[in-house]
Amino acid sequence: MTRITIPEGKHAVMYVFEELAPKLGPAANQFADAVYSQSSLPLREFEAARMRIAQINNCQLCLDWRTERADEPTPQESLYEAVQNWRDSAQLNERECLAVEYAERFAYEHLGLDNSFWERMHRAYTDAEIAELSLCLALWLGLGRVNNVLGIDVACEL
To answer: Considering the entire predicted model, what is its pTM?
Structure first.
Protein backbone atom coordinates (compact mmCIF):
# COMPACT_ATOMS: atom_id res chain seq x y z
CA MET A 1 0.00 0.00 0.00
CA THR A 2 1.42 3.36 -0.97
CA ARG A 3 1.34 6.07 1.64
CA ILE A 4 1.16 8.84 -0.93
CA THR A 5 -1.14 9.17 -3.91
CA ILE A 6 0.32 7.86 -7.15
CA PRO A 7 -1.78 8.79 -10.20
CA GLU A 8 -3.05 5.92 -12.33
CA GLY A 9 -0.50 4.84 -14.89
CA LYS A 10 2.42 6.58 -13.19
CA HIS A 11 5.61 4.74 -12.30
CA ALA A 12 5.63 5.21 -8.51
CA VAL A 13 9.35 5.66 -7.91
CA MET A 14 9.81 7.92 -10.92
CA TYR A 15 6.74 9.94 -9.95
CA VAL A 16 8.09 10.53 -6.44
CA PHE A 17 11.62 11.36 -7.57
CA GLU A 18 10.80 13.37 -10.69
CA GLU A 19 7.43 15.00 -10.05
CA LEU A 20 6.90 15.20 -6.30
CA ALA A 21 10.51 16.09 -5.47
CA PRO A 22 11.80 17.66 -8.70
CA LYS A 23 14.66 19.51 -7.02
CA LEU A 24 15.94 16.57 -4.95
CA GLY A 25 14.90 13.53 -6.96
CA PRO A 26 17.28 14.07 -9.88
CA ALA A 27 20.22 14.37 -7.48
CA ALA A 28 19.18 11.13 -5.77
CA ASN A 29 18.88 9.47 -9.18
CA GLN A 30 22.37 10.70 -10.13
CA PHE A 31 23.78 9.32 -6.89
CA ALA A 32 22.08 5.97 -7.52
CA ASP A 33 23.32 5.91 -11.10
CA ALA A 34 26.87 6.60 -9.93
CA VAL A 35 26.72 3.81 -7.34
CA TYR A 36 25.50 1.27 -9.89
CA SER A 37 27.55 2.37 -12.91
CA GLN A 38 30.78 3.61 -11.34
CA SER A 39 31.46 1.33 -8.39
CA SER A 40 34.74 -0.51 -8.64
CA LEU A 41 33.85 -2.97 -5.88
CA PRO A 42 33.70 -6.59 -7.05
CA LEU A 43 30.11 -7.40 -7.95
CA ARG A 44 29.69 -10.22 -5.41
CA GLU A 45 30.80 -7.93 -2.56
CA PHE A 46 28.64 -5.10 -3.90
CA GLU A 47 25.59 -7.35 -4.17
CA ALA A 48 26.14 -9.06 -0.82
CA ALA A 49 26.25 -5.71 0.99
CA ARG A 50 23.32 -4.38 -1.05
CA MET A 51 21.22 -7.44 -0.29
CA ARG A 52 21.87 -7.17 3.46
CA ILE A 53 20.63 -3.58 3.43
CA ALA A 54 17.60 -4.68 1.36
CA GLN A 55 16.82 -7.33 3.98
CA ILE A 56 17.18 -4.85 6.83
CA ASN A 57 15.01 -2.25 5.07
CA ASN A 58 12.53 -4.91 3.96
CA CYS A 59 12.36 -3.06 0.65
CA GLN A 60 10.69 -5.45 -1.81
CA LEU A 61 12.03 -3.59 -4.81
CA CYS A 62 15.57 -3.89 -3.43
CA LEU A 63 15.11 -7.54 -2.46
CA ASP A 64 14.01 -8.42 -5.98
CA TRP A 65 16.71 -6.37 -7.73
CA ARG A 66 19.80 -8.08 -9.18
CA THR A 67 22.70 -5.91 -10.34
CA GLU A 68 24.39 -7.00 -13.55
CA ARG A 69 27.65 -5.85 -15.10
CA ALA A 70 28.95 -6.65 -18.55
CA ASP A 71 32.47 -7.34 -17.31
CA GLU A 72 31.66 -9.67 -14.37
CA PRO A 73 29.59 -12.81 -14.03
CA THR A 74 26.17 -12.26 -12.50
CA PRO A 75 26.09 -13.72 -8.98
CA GLN A 76 24.13 -16.92 -8.57
CA GLU A 77 21.06 -16.96 -6.33
CA SER A 78 23.07 -18.88 -3.74
CA LEU A 79 24.92 -15.63 -2.94
CA TYR A 80 21.67 -13.85 -2.11
CA GLU A 81 20.47 -16.81 -0.05
CA ALA A 82 23.76 -16.87 1.89
CA VAL A 83 23.53 -13.23 2.95
CA GLN A 84 20.72 -13.74 5.48
CA ASN A 85 22.88 -16.17 7.49
CA TRP A 86 26.24 -14.70 6.52
CA ARG A 87 27.98 -15.60 9.80
CA ASP A 88 27.54 -19.32 9.13
CA SER A 89 27.76 -19.33 5.35
CA ALA A 90 30.47 -21.18 3.48
CA GLN A 91 29.26 -19.42 0.30
CA LEU A 92 30.86 -16.08 1.19
CA ASN A 93 34.56 -15.28 1.25
CA GLU A 94 36.24 -13.05 3.85
CA ARG A 95 35.70 -9.78 1.98
CA GLU A 96 32.07 -10.64 1.20
CA CYS A 97 31.43 -11.45 4.87
CA LEU A 98 33.04 -8.18 5.90
CA ALA A 99 30.96 -6.25 3.37
CA VAL A 100 27.79 -7.84 4.76
CA GLU A 101 28.86 -7.30 8.36
CA TYR A 102 29.65 -3.66 7.59
CA ALA A 103 26.26 -3.24 5.93
CA GLU A 104 24.48 -4.70 8.93
CA ARG A 105 26.44 -2.68 11.46
CA PHE A 106 26.16 0.48 9.33
CA ALA A 107 22.37 0.11 9.49
CA TYR A 108 21.96 -1.05 13.09
CA GLU A 109 24.94 0.04 15.15
CA HIS A 110 27.00 2.65 13.35
CA LEU A 111 28.07 4.12 16.70
CA GLY A 112 29.42 0.74 17.80
CA LEU A 113 31.97 0.14 15.05
CA ASP A 114 34.95 -0.61 17.28
CA ASN A 115 38.70 -0.74 16.63
CA SER A 116 38.60 -4.51 16.21
CA PHE A 117 36.12 -4.19 13.36
CA TRP A 118 38.16 -1.46 11.66
CA GLU A 119 41.35 -3.51 11.98
CA ARG A 120 39.63 -6.37 10.15
CA MET A 121 38.28 -3.98 7.50
CA HIS A 122 41.72 -2.45 6.92
CA ARG A 123 43.32 -5.88 6.53
CA ALA A 124 40.87 -6.69 3.72
CA TYR A 125 39.98 -3.32 2.16
CA THR A 126 41.85 -0.19 1.12
CA ASP A 127 40.72 3.18 2.41
CA ALA A 128 39.31 3.95 -1.04
CA GLU A 129 37.28 0.72 -1.03
CA ILE A 130 35.98 1.46 2.47
CA ALA A 131 34.94 4.95 1.39
CA GLU A 132 33.22 3.60 -1.72
CA LEU A 133 31.42 0.85 0.18
CA SER A 134 30.31 3.42 2.79
CA LEU A 135 28.76 5.63 0.10
CA CYS A 136 27.01 2.63 -1.46
CA LEU A 137 25.61 1.67 1.94
CA ALA A 138 24.39 5.22 2.51
CA LEU A 139 22.50 5.19 -0.79
CA TRP A 140 20.94 1.78 -0.26
CA LEU A 141 19.97 2.39 3.34
CA GLY A 142 18.49 5.82 2.70
CA LEU A 143 16.67 5.28 -0.57
CA GLY A 144 15.57 1.78 0.34
CA ARG A 145 13.92 3.22 3.41
CA VAL A 146 12.30 5.99 1.39
CA ASN A 147 10.83 3.37 -0.95
CA ASN A 148 9.64 1.19 1.92
CA VAL A 149 8.28 3.98 4.16
CA LEU A 150 6.33 5.55 1.30
CA GLY A 151 5.10 2.14 0.19
CA ILE A 152 6.48 2.52 -3.32
CA ASP A 153 8.83 -0.45 -3.07
CA VAL A 154 6.08 -2.79 -4.26
CA ALA A 155 4.12 -0.40 -6.47
CA CYS A 156 6.45 -0.45 -9.43
CA GLU A 157 8.82 -2.38 -11.60
CA LEU A 158 12.19 -1.10 -12.69
So the answer is: 0.93
